[in-house]
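Researcher: Next sequence.
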Amino acid sequence: MKEATTGALRPVYLVLGEERWLVDRVVSAIREAAAKGGIAGFNEDKFTAGDASIESILGAARMLPMMGPRRFVLVRGVDRWEKKDDSDDGDGEDERGAGGKRGVSKQLSPLDALAEYAKAPSPSAVLVLVAPKLHGQRRLVTAAKKGDFLVACEPLNRRALPGFITTMAREKGNPIAGDVAEQLAELAGPELGYVVDAIERLSLYVGPKQPITEDAIAQVVIRVRQSTVWELIDALGRRRLDRALAALADAYDPRDGGLRLLGAVSWSVRQMVKFESALAAGASQAEAAQRAGVAPFKANDVAQSVRQLPKGALAGWMRMLAETDLALKSSRRPAQAVLETMLIEMCSR
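Model: Next structure:
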């Protein structure tokens, strides 16, 4: 991104990673930088590996630009050329037949051909190769690492996501508290595309320079107030399955398949885990609330919920929440039925 901003582009970029939002930002920035000084779209070629031949792709990269300083050549799906039975050891050396006579020259695989091109790329083109992943021992990957043209676009881990949210919200001009950023990470993550969309909608909802709050998230992201979630948590802590199922019925939104509601419950349970851990370490109730990101006016309710649970119950809840998340994403059962099963199991703990 920095190279694109300064215009100091490399002739080849290998963009690997499964975080689509980051990949799209990188490709867009390089494309925009490559087009400077020329007519937009005039010196561009976009290919999909397999649909286009390696010869046509390299031909486009070697073609001289017209009415501009550079050509931009984008190749998506480069991993389609990676086959399980491809040893990727093609080096272009001649094979010898019987008696040591030279035979037909071994043809390079598409990935090896790209690695060869990267050794002496066209100085008037920017070739961008995109794939979710490639084997680390591929000649193209090792060349990209050695030549420093490998761009990693991997998903952010759970711990890094709140910081990303805080930065993005600040860029929009909207402050966000650390605990609220964690809540949004739980509800909107892990895909950055959805997270960024949620921040955009929240920024428009709260207005310029206004903080993004729990209430805004309840209105814009999950359409359920956190107080309803705490009613559900309280019912679970008291083993009141009837009240828990009633709260679920009120809060469940079929449009998101229950995932946003599960995220809200998971975030609240994670707060309780932090709160319980702080109390066990000798912290006061107020200190425990601060460490767990619990609002001061909720501290008594959270303390009561934590203390009425049997020892180890929260750890069991966390396991059930993880299992439910997997079930919602992979099971054919109705989402509401999956959540109801989770509540029954949590009440029996």
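Model: The mean pLDDT is 85. Strands lie at 12-16, 44-48, 71-76, 94-96, 102-105, 125-131, 150-152.
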